[in-house]
TrEMBL record:
Protein name as annotated: Bcr/CflA family efflux transporter
InterPro entries for this protein: Efflux_drug-R_Bcr/CmlA, MFS, MFS_dom, MFS_trans_sf
Compartment list: Cell membrane
Transmembrane spans: 48-67, 79-97, 103-124, 136-155, 161-186, 216-241, 247-270, 282-302, 308-332, 344-364, 370-392
Length: 400
């Protein structure tokens, strides 16, 4: 009986992680095609990069809209409409006649893709509570983190056989597949009697109550602030590893994948300890690990330390994210069942919004300085500790 339950959970996690994968696939899969796009549209680098920014803005802002919509209309209907729109928008991107329309379509594509991120998390809250939610979120985190590892490679593979247009046709087919999954594989998890009113003022009141909830915002801010450190890592390490330490592009790809493995190992750590150790204690372990590893990163870059030490510190920081992610989600969402969509929207939007702040900071010293990266990633752990101490715990430094 237990084996059947585990198999069902794995299958369900695979389905939900496919929706979560829309984010990284939408953002990352076309990165290797950027030079092709610049040539095809006859434009400059800034305009092409604007298409990336547009998709990130869509992913962030879309969650604030689709989350509450799923609280009002249930999870299945908004998810189905969004997947159909994702299919159509992806195909429209493939045949866009000019860069202006392409940028606008990329915003819409990111906007509707956000439904996969936020509604999949709301479904988890609908179906699970407490330790079971922590265990399932650790499983979902482990599977979902495979997507950022394979999406750039998948894009490069597609462009070896076709042009950048093939990437967006592939994304359209992914949207078609997820439309089918929604129709035949996703059951409604929010019954009508648990839904909220469609009154816009009530939606705003729900957001207001979440923003005033100290515990919820504490865990949400810790999650978002530390996840912004991942954006800093993604933006900074390509230049640091290759320009300063002479790592080849091929080896960098392997090391990037290994850090993804760090997140997976962290989530597995949570899965094994859930039920044996209090979630709040697990959370503190992850937060302490993040603080120690980011402090080590800063010291290494200030001292121009060896590459091996830097890589190990970044790997362990990634593991701390794997620990904090599923546990902070559970602790934040425990009392938000009636507005799980809105709560999940804030959790997801904070990650993208704060990531948009940290990403440009790591480049302030140029391509050959790692110091802004070290300071930025260490400050994420400092701010996360402050958010935890003053919002989740009583304002005393001994509480950590």
């Amino acid at each position: 009986m237990k084996a059947k339950t585990n198999n069902h959970s794995l299958l369900f996690a695979l389905m939900l992680s496919a929706f979560s994968a829309l984010g990284p696939f939408t953002v990352d899969m076309y990165l290797s095609s950027l030079p092709q796009l610049m040539s095809y549209f006859g434009t400059n680098t800034s305009m092409i990069q604007a298409s990336l920014t547009a998709s990130l803005l869509g992913l962030g802002l879309g969650q604030l809209v689709t989350g509450p919509l799923s609280d009002v209309h249930g999870r299945r209907k908004p998810l189905l409409i969004s997947m159909i729109l994702y299919l159509l928008t992806s195909l429209a991107c493939a045949f866009s006649p000019n860069i202006g329309l392409f940028i606008a379509l990329r915003f819409i594509q990111g906007f509707v893709a956000s439904a996969g991120l936020v509604i999949s998390r709301a479904i988890v809250r609908d179906r699970y509570n407490g330790i079971e939610m922590t265990k399932f979120m650790s499983l979902l985190t482990m599977i979902s983190n495979i997507a950022p590892l394979i999406s750039p490679t998948a894009g490069s593979t597609v462009t070896t056989f076709t042009s950048w247009i093939g990437v967006f046709i592939f994304l359209g087919l992914l949207g078609l597949f997820l439309t089918g999954v929604t129709v035949w594989g996703i059951k409604e998890s929010l019954p009508a009697e648990r839904r909220i009113s469609s009154n816009f003022r009530e939606v705003l009141r729900n957001y207001g109550s979440l923003l005033r909830d100290r515990s919820f915002m504490g865990y949400a801010l810790v999650n978002g602030i530390l996840f912004s450190g991942v954006f800093a890592y993604v933006a900074g390490t390509p230049f640091i590893y290759q320009n300063m330490y002479g790592i080849s592009p091929q080896l960098f790809s392997i090391l990037f994948a290994l850090n993804g493995l760090g997140i997976i190992l962290g989530s597995q750590f949570v899965k094994r300890l859930a039920g044996r150790m209090d979630e709040r204690r697990i959370f503190r372990i992850g937060l302490q690990l993040a603080f120690i590893t980011t402090a080590a990163i800063l010291m290494i870059v200030l001292a121009h330390g060896p590459f091996f030490a830097l890589f190990i510190s970044v790997f362990l920081f990634a593991a701390s994210i794997g620990i904090i992610g599923p546990v902070s989600f559970t602790l934040a969402m425990e009392s938000q069942g009636h507005i799980a969509g809105s709560a999940a929207a804030i959790l997801g939007t904070l990650q993208f919004a704060l990531g948009a702040v940290t990403s440009p900071l790591v480049g302030l010293g140029g391509d050959n300085s790692a110091i802004p990266f070290g300071i930025t990633i260490f400050m994420t752990s400092i701010l996360a500790v402050i958010a935890f101490v003053f919002l989740v715990k009583k304002p005393t430094l001994a509480s950590l």
